[in-house]
Specification:
One of its GO terms (molecular function) is oxidoreductase activity. It is a single chain. The protein is built from 5 helices and 11 strands; from the N terminus they run H-E-E-E-E-H-E-H-H-E-E-E-H-E-E-E. The protein is an alpha+beta fold. It has a single domain, classed as Pnp Oxidase, Chain A (Roll). A 7-stranded antiparallel β-sheet has the order 2-1-5-8-9-4-3. A two-stranded antiparallel sheet has the order 6-7.
């Protein structure tokens, strides 16, 4: 075994696919790229995400209590990075990157029509925001874009390198204890 710096832990445990966070501040929509998120519980579906006050989306999420988490396919990797390299205070990212918006059902932030999945969220708990910039979101609606040909999720390794999901293994028949969660997306 080779010892590595514990400060690199995030590069090992990056929780899941990169997501794009859509918000609306009452004037215009914005979007940011985010990798720091995690499932907190199944029911109701709660998601933890870190968005700091240095991000333009922070104020919109903090003030409105609403956002959309959109999961892009691997084919959007360059756009995901480019969106993360600029600020909504300086540019209309939807216009600059030609991202398609779709109408949400329960929140004011737009869905991202180019993404594989969209999850409409409301802030469920903000007690850890001041200390950790950690919002606990409750999923209130979810969408699947079945027309997308690229189905691989994009994972960031924290240093500008990415991987995309590859082969999937279906072991649902072995999940005897958690059958209630076996639903196709």
């Amino acid at each position: 075994m080779r010892r590595i710096d514990a400060s690199r832990t995030y590069r090992i445990l990056e929780s899941g696919p990169i997501v794009m966070v859509s918000t609306h501040d009452g004037v215009r929509p914005n979007i940011m790229t985010m990798g720091f998120h995690m499932m907190v519980q199944h029911a109701p579906p709660l998601i933890g995400c870190v968005i700091g006050p240095w991000d333009h989306s922070f104020a919109a999420l903090h003030n409105t209590g609403q956002c959309v988490l959109a999961v892009p396919g691997a084919d959007l990797a360059r756009t995901v990075v480019d969106v993360g390299n600029c600020s909504g205070t300086e540019v209309d990212k939807f216009e600059r990157f030609g991202l398609a918006m779709s109408r949400p059902a329960k929140v004011k932030a737009p869905l991202l029509g180019d993404c594989l999945y969209n999850i409409e969220c409301v802030v469920h708990d903000d007690t850890m925001v001041e200390k950790y910039q950690l919002f606990i979101l409750k999923a209130v609606a979810a969408w699947s874009n079945d027309a997308r040909k690229e189905r691989r999720f994009l994972h960031h390794h924290g240093d500008g390198t990415f991987t995309a999901d590859g082969e999937r293994f279906d072991l649902r028949d072995r999940m005897t204890l958690w059958r209630q969660f076996q639903v196709d997306l």
